[in-house]
Amino acid sequence: MDNQDYRLLKRFITRESIPVAELIASENISQKTLQKRLAKLNENIHGIGQIKERHGRYFLQVIDYHGLSRLQSGYLRESLDFNDSEKRQAYIIQQLVTTTGYVVQDDLADTLMISRSTLSKDLDKLRRTLCVYDAEIVAQSNHGIKLVLDQAYQLPLLLLNEVYDYFAANYPLTPAVQQALAAVSNQINDQTTATRLQKLTAIMSFLWRDDRQIDLHVAHYQNLVRLTPEWQQLFRALSAQRQTNLTATEQDFICFPVNLKYSSLLSRSLVAQQLDKNQALLQQIKRQIEVHVQVELDYAEFYTQVKYHLLFLCYRSLFNMSASEIFTNEIIKNYPVAAELALIALNTLEQGLGAIIPTTEATYLTVYFQLALDAVQDQQHVAQQVGIVGNIGLGAQHFLKKQLAEVFADQIKVVAITDKAQLKQPDLPFLLIFSDQPLDLGDNRIPVIRIDDLFRTEELTTKITLSLVHKAIMAQACHLQITYLTPQADYQATVDQMIEQATLKGELAPSFKQMWHQRELQGSSVFENAIALPHTINEIAKPVIFLQIGILQKPLLVNKRKVHLIFLLGIPQQLNQQLNRVLDTLYDFIFSVVRQENVLQNLLHYRLDQPIEQLTEGI
Length: 619
Prior knowledge:
Arc Repressor Mutant, subunit A, five-stranded mixed β-sheet, four-stranded parallel β-sheet, 24 helices, 50% helix, 15% strand, transcription, PTrfase/Anion_transptr
């Protein structure tokens, strides 16, 4: 199994199932190539598991959980040969670290049995990897190349993350250190942490073997581990091997793997002190959020919920460790405001810590911000009113209310309307009206729904959502445009044209296009089922959500996905709870279009001279 297959396997380990279209887009391959890759992967994991397909989605069926655990620990990497690009890069790093002075590129190419052009490609890839470690490869004519690091403590991290798994045999431990390490590991309940500590100890032993002096001070890091007798014995064993005592800074560095998640090995008092210090980080995040977007948040309650995650996020980032990918980028796509707040928070932390934070961390912070936004909304929510017209008894009304509450997931007030003349009065307060017969509402545009539609849950949800969208438009909380588009050269050019036209009309801020370009670097805005949702903060004074639906007269091909609809969304800088709820409704509306083929077809054949209610015709 090469690294390409290993990465593909990891996707199935962290996901319940993955749509075919998503795999094709993320791997940037054809369906035929995907099937070949999956067939090869199934050969490699024979007896451990099998990738299966059902209803257009692939999933991993596990047979041998212990075998899968060994695969995840990376033990196979050492068995790879130099046909694997990443193993060649690991070898190059190891040579640069162990060689005094420069490494001759011709010698590297000969040892790896590759051409100079292949070596050049490997070095280009390696240079991109080294950026994360504040390191670079410096070349000098007639000498060769060498490794230069801005911060010395990044060297063991580089070996830990990029080299060790390929060349573990080069990092032996003495029996005394092994015994002391085993005693410490017995106190660690998490296997990943114990394995990482073992690898780090082996790497430090390797680096100290030649009396190499490394400054291991890490800014913003405080060791939170309780130094038990077992830890002290490990430090003594390492000191004896090194023939000099470990400094306090070196001891702290050895402990860092245990500082990446909460456990009983951490000192409660030290953790509490660090949480208090991190209040300053929260204030910096709050100030930056207020610069970019005005949103109602209970920051004190938010910090209560996020403080532990924030602490370990900072520590993971300082040591170039990524969080496990429990959530996918779909979280960021589905919660745009929370995602924007998360990205602002990450940018603030990066500047404060002087570290590069992986984009996977954005998904976790998005979840915390969304929970905080929801909490404020729940406190300020007003029940929606639903009218009932017809010969409907009290028991049926209670049942109707119960069913609506399940569908609507909200507070519902059901009002019986006995006087039909009342229906023609302007500005009726009803979200929708249930009836057992057609009704004349005059100029009111409130949806009238047959009572038997109450049991068609998906269709009912769509009609409710569209009613809320119309209500937001009438309240001038949302500015909606639906237009037909002629595709440009590619997806970005098409969206850029939409943005430029809206900017000329004063509906989007001049900064919107550049902000969207930056936002797109965090993750693609193209979804399944032929839609794209480019969005970011709209830095204009008007507290109005801008939504333009572009219907492409000819579909665009984006990452092997066809795009028929573009929903261009401008999120106002001043975002109160009313607008936040409208934004949630717009997202529900967009995804109801995706879920229901009839609604999608109605939108693709939209009549520009007819009201938006035409979307629910015939569903």
